[in-house]
Amino acid sequence: MPILFFMRHAESKANRNRTLASQTDVTITPQGMDDAYNIAREFLKDIELDGIISSPQLRACQTANPFEKMSGIKAEIDKSISEQHFGRFTGMSYDAVKMDPAYEKDVTKRWNWIPEGGGESYKMLADRIVPFFERFGSLNNNAKYLIVSHAVTLRIIKGLLEDTLPLYPEKIANNGEIWQV
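Below the sequence we write its predicted structure tokens.
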């Protein structure tokens, strides 16, 4: 498998406002834009990428944009690494969901919990993500890819790669954080 760098999108307006963005298109903040540019500049000093893959959500695409411009590589958009669908909780504030009795507050119990209103359980998200990795099986082992995605998606990806599912990390990646596999 090639070398994979996973990045959570830079700060979005939903992060700043403390709301669940889910699969909606919210933009990154001016601070997020500056951070994405600075992270790309520093990252690309030492790493020559062979590919960039981004979730289709606007905040991920905007985060990938400086990497595209500086590397000359156009990002491939892949729906399978979209953020978890939070159903009717999409757009609600963190405080409001904590008060809603239908919201599963315990992150360790979300594997089979399906958010009301068409949401995805963590298991459903994992099932959506698994085929994403099939593309890397036949690629050059020295190839380097940046994958820009989201907090919950990266939580599940980490569990998949560490082969711990249905147990998964409780801590999520910070905005703009990059980790390597």
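Helices lie at 13-17, 30-46, 58-71, 94-99, 122-129, 151-161.
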